[in-house]
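**Archive record**
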Amino acid sequence: MWLIVGSKLVAQAVNEQMKTYDDALFVRLSDLAKTLEGEQRKATFELNKIQQGAQDLETLRKLATSRLTGVSVETGKLQINQQLVDGLNSAEECKKRGTFEHFIPFNHVFSTVPVVLPSFSLIDFGHGQDHRLKVNVIEVSTEGFKLDFNTWCDTRMSQAEVSWLAIGV
């Protein structure tokens, strides 16, 4: 009988010890589960941010592509010389050459009025005088524009070349 009572006491002590270990193990597992849930929430949040960023980039790419595909660019040059402007190299012909306008048609019709940028690509002045001239773009339409070329009376030149760039839709 003593053996039975001793076995029961040992079994009871082992069961109590097992319950203590089980409780401690349960607490540790619960803590780990909470930590994992928090980490999973953080990972999900970061993944959502990455996915949103990718969607934003795709939206920007589509927007940029759609805007760029509709853009048209056209360039050209106009030679301004004695054949186009009488007295270009003569001070006596000042009234004829002081202001010169020339219509330049586009190769295709733009949907909206484009921006036109002029620049001099060649200037051949006479020597001994001040050199003053300017070029303006005026009366821009979807079909073309006028180039307004101005010199001062004492400016003498053999030729000039005006390049232009039209950007529009």
